[in-house]
Amino acid sequence: MTEERIGSSPTLRDVAAEAGVSPATASRALNGSTRNVSAERLALVLQAAEKLGYAPNLSAQATARGSTKTVALIVHDVADPYFSSIAAGAIEGAEAAGLTVTMAVTDRSPDRELEIVSTLRGHRPHAIVLAGSRIGDDQDALAGELRAYEAAGGRVAVVSQPGLPYGTVTIDNHQAAADLAAALVAHGYRRFAVLRGPDDLRTSRDRSDGFLAGLARDGNAVVIETGFTEDGGHTAMTDLLGRGLDGVELVFAVNDVMAIGAMRALRDAGLVPGRDLAVAGFDDIDAATDVDPALSTVRVPMRAMGRRAIELVLAGGDGNEVVWLPTTVCLRDSSPGRA
To answer: CB count, 10 Å around CB of 143?
Structure first.
């Protein structure tokens, strides 16, 4: 019989003594590892823990198991509707699997992303999902941190362009933008402006290049680099208006928030989007159909990407599997057909 403890919480040793087993056996039974623990001893330990009111140390359990019941989702910008939609899908998938999602934000900084992954290694989440365009072409340091995390029992998936040696959920940004360009040309447009983000942002680069490829011989475009944000779209459109449209009929922004910023700049200048200048974006965030006029865009299955990434990271299959999800061109009132 154990001595009653007054004024302090029961310890693992108390549980072991109550159950008549070694502390090591009690630890294995309580942290979920039943290796070398018989059913009889497991029952004794659980009964002892309940009798004494023992609360296991979750941090210690995570160390023993190699992971916690969490999935760490790393995104560039949680305020961006693109990432919030991916996060919503990831949360749905994780909850269905009995896991909780925690989120970290990189602010589009590769150094911050690397720091977050390094920190997460110590917290040992069950899985890490990286969501967002790869920035730059040197991924060696990030891949090294992820390999170390994986070697300790963690799992990794990516919502981004293929490139890292992990299961990846992606879309064909280049082809989808080319499809949009072809549809707009078929709608009667010939002279375009393209608002794109920094060149080291692969999503922006792929969409811009794809759109230009889709124009082929049937259209031409001026390209303006700006911030990959709503304010960036507003600034670029303001600058374009300031120096003159020079025949530009439609402005394509490489994401919807930039396109919405461009529409705001048109209104600030006393112009009407869709009537005085057509606008198109990419992603089909919820706000794309809330703005007036509704925004022409490319529909990306963002929630499905988040859910599929969770399925992929939990499946434990081929670590290099790439899942391509389809996109859809959506022409709306912001780009009415031209006679």
So the answer is: 16
> Is the bond preceding residue 293 a cis peptide, omega within 30 degrees?
yes
Those residues of the chain that have pLDDT short of 50 are 1-7, 33-34, 58-66
* Residue-level pLDDT at 88: 94
Pairwise CA distance, residues 59 & 205, whole Å: 42
CA distance 262 to 61: 51
Task: Please report the pLDDT score of residue 205 as a whole number.
Answer: 95
CB 206 within 8 A of CB 197: no
Helices and strands (DSSP H and E) totals, the chain: 12, 12
Tokens of 89: 């899908």
Contact call for residues 102 and 156 (beta carbons, < 8 A): no
| Confidence at residue 7, expressed as pLDDT on a 0 to 100 scale | 47
* Cβ–Cβ < 8 Å for 166, 196: no
What is the pTM (predicted TM-score) of this model?
0.78
What is the radius of gyration, based on Cα positions, of the chain?
Answer: 26
The alpha-helical segments, DSSP class H, found in the chain are 12-19, 23-30, 39-52, 58-65, 81-96, 110-123, 140-151, 173-186, 202-215, 230-243, 256-268, 302-315
- In this structure, the strands spanning 191-196 and 220-225 are parallel
Q: How many CB atoms lie within 10 A of CB 225?
A: 15
Nearest to 252 by CA among 293, 286, 292, 210: 210
Token readout for 51 is 């009798």
Length of the chain measured in residues:
339
Task: Find how far residue 171's CA is from the centre of its chain.
Answer: 13
Looking at the DSSP assignment, which residues form a beta bridge with residue 224? 195
**What confidence tens digit (pLDDT) does each residue in 79-117 have?**
889 999 999 999 999 999 998 899 999 888 888 888 888
Question: Which residues are CB-neighbours of 321 under 8 A, at least 6 positions away?
Answer: 167, 168, 312
Q: How many CB atoms lie within 10 A of CB 151?
A: 9
- Look at residue 78 in the predicted model and tell me its pLDDT: 82
Q: Which pLDDT tens digit goes with each residue over 154-182?
A: 899 999 988 888 899 999 999 999 999 99
